[in-house]
Amino acid sequence: MNFDYSNLFKWLGVPCMIVLPNSPEFTIVDANETYLGLFGLGGEDIISKSFFSVFPSSDFIDEINWEDLFDEVIRERRIISKGIKTWVDPQEKRTSIENVKYFEIKHFPVFDKNGEVMVIVRSLVDVTDYVIDRRLLTEAQSDVRFGNWWINIEKRTIKWSSGMNDLFEVDRDFIPDFENVKQFYVEAEDESIFLEEVIRAIKGHRILKTFLSVRTKSGKLRRLKIIGKPDHIGEACIGIHGTAIDITKQHEDQNILKDILFCHNHELRAPLARIIGLAEHLKRDVRTEARSGFLIGALLDSANEMDRVIRQIVNREQYKGGPDE
Amino acid sequence: MNRIILVDDDTISTFLLSSLLEHLGMGHVHAKFINGAEFLEWLDSQQEDGARYVVFLDIMMPVMDGWEVMERLERNRLARRISVVMVSSSLDPTDRKRAIAHGMVLDYITKPVRAKELERLGTFME
After folding, report:
1. Roughly what angle, to the nearest 10 degrees, separates helices A289-318 and A248-284?
2. Could you list the mean pLDDT of each consecutive 10-residue stretch along chain A, which spans 325 residues?
3. Up-side HSE of residue A149: CA atoms within 13 Å toward CB?
4. What pLDDT does A68 receive?
5. DSSP characters over A77-131
6. What is the pLDDT of residues B23-41, one digit of tens each?
7. Nearest Cα to Cα of residue A22 among A52, A45, A44
8. Best residue in B8, B9, B16, B24 to probe A by mutation, most A CBs within 10 Å?
9. Is the pLDDT assigned to residue B16 strictly greater than 80?
10. Domains in chain A, ordered, with CATH?
11. What is chain A's percent helix, strand, coil content, to nearest 5?
C-alpha cells in the first residue's frame, strides 16, 4: 500500500520537528504545520537552518541547558523524555492564563540501516488540561478528606482506599463488605436509598452523583459527596467505582448561612420591601418634581439602611465563635 | 361602608399602601396609626354606627406588635365589624399559619403589598 507519510506528518495534530544529528548545528529538516503554527513561523523560515539559529533561546520558561538539548538523545540512542515544560505563546504580548500551555517534550532517534542516528524527531504533546486538572486535584486533596472505592456487583464485594479508612475512622486493617459497612449509615433506610441510586446509575449507564450522611466509627457525623462510574463490559455491569469526598464543613457552612438568612430576613426585607414599593410607585405615578424628590430620597434612605443591616450581620457573624471556642 | 385603617410604624409603607389603594380605586385611608396601642385606644372611642373596618395590620411594631393587637381585637366590642389583613416583611412561613388561624384575618400579605394582592381581597374592600 502506498501511503503518503509525508502528508500525514505535515498535518499531524502533535507539533513535530525533524532535525539532523549534526551537532552543534542540528539542521532542521522539516516541521509540521502544528509546530510552525505554535511559533508563528513558516517552513521557509526554518527548513535547512540550524535549530539554534532559529531558536537561540527557549520559549519554555523552565528549560535549562538549552544548548545541550539534543545531546542526551544522541548519547543514549533511545527515546528521551524532556519532561513537561511550561510554554508561553511568543506571539502574545502579555502573559495570561490563556497563553500558557504545558507540553511534554520527547526526542525520538530514527536509525538508519547501519544503526546510526539518521534524524531526531522532536515532539511536543500538549498536556495543558492534564496539568491543570492534576493541580486542581492536588489542591483539593490537600484540604479535603476523600477516598476511592470500588463495588463488584457480581461478587458483592467492596474495596476501598486508605482514604476511606480515614473518612470512617477505622483501622487500616478494616476490610469493608456489604454487612460491616451498614454500621456507617445514619438511618436504616439510607442504605436502600443509596443502593437504589447505584442501581439507577448502573442501569442508566451514567455517572452516580449523590450525597450521603454517615456516622464514623467514633460516632462523628459526616456528609459525603459520592461520585461513581459504572464499569460495563458490553451490557453487563461488573462493578462501579468512584470517590467519596467529605463535604461536612461546606454543608455546615451552608446550614449556618441559611440560619443567618432566616434569623435576619425581617431586618433585611423591611428596607428591601420599601425600595421595591417605592420603585413600583414611581413607575406607576411620577408627579411633580418635588414629590419625586421625596420618593427618591426615601429610596436612597432605604437602600442605605439595607446596606447598613447587611454590614452589621456580616460583622456580627464574622466575629462569632465557632464550635471549638 | 368600609373604613380602611393602616396600623404600621413604617411611614413609607403606609404611604405606599394608601397610595396603592387610591390608585386601585379601593378608597381613601380613614386613619393611620404607628403602633397597636394607639389603634386600640382609638377603636375604643368609636361609636357603634354600622361601619365596617378593614385593618391593614403590620406585625413588627414597637409598644404593641400585631400579634398582641389580634389577641385584644378578638375581645373587642366591635370585633364582628372588623376584618384584618396582616402585613409583614418577614418570610417566616409560620407567621402566615399563625395569622390565618385567627378568624378575623382575611389574608396575610408579605411586603411590598402589590396590586394583585389587594384585588384578591375583592368584595371585602367595597
Report:
1. 170
2. 72 90 93 90 92 87 80 91 79 60 91 93 88 65 76 85 90 90 90 87 85 92 90 78 88 75 78 88 69 79 83 64 35
3. 27
4. 87
5. -S-EEEEEEEEE-TT-SS--GGGEEEEEEEEEEEE-TTS-EEEEEEEEEE-HHHH
6. 898 888 999 999 999 999 9
7. A52
8. B16
9. yes
10. 5-134 (3.30.450.20), 144-246 (3.30.450.20), 250-318 (1.10.287)
11. 45, 25, 30
Q: Which of B20, B23, B89 sits opposite A273 (nearest CB)?
A: B89
Every domain of chain B and the residues it spans: 2-125
Tell me which of A266, A294, A296 to substitute to probe the interface with B (most B C-beta atoms closer than 10 Å). A266
* Strands annotated E in B34-76: 52-58
Contact B92 A265 (CB under 8 A): yes
**Rounded Cα distance, A49 and A26, in Å:** 8
Contact list in B for residue A270 (CB cut-off 8 A) is: 10, 60, 89, 111
Chain A nearest C-alpha distance from B91 (Å): 7
- Mark yes or no for CB contact B10/A274 under 8 Å: yes
Q: Which of B19, B20, B111 sits opposite A273 (nearest CB)?
A: B111
Disruptive mutation site among A280, A287, A296, A300 for chain B (greatest number of B CBs within 10 Å):
A280
Best CATH choice for the domain B2-125 from the list 3.40.50.2300, 2.40.128.10, 3.10.350.10, 3.40.640.10: 3.40.50.2300
Asked if A269 lies within 8 A of B111 by C-beta distance, the reply is yes
Query: Which residues of chain B does A302 touch, with a Cβ-Cβ cutoff of 8 Å?
Result: 12
Tens of pLDDT, residues B65-104: 899 999 999 999 999 999 999 999 888 878 888 998 888 9
Average pLDDT of span B56-61: 93
pLDDT value of residue A322: 37
ipTM: 0.81
* Shortest Cα–Cα distance, A223 to chain B (Å): 27
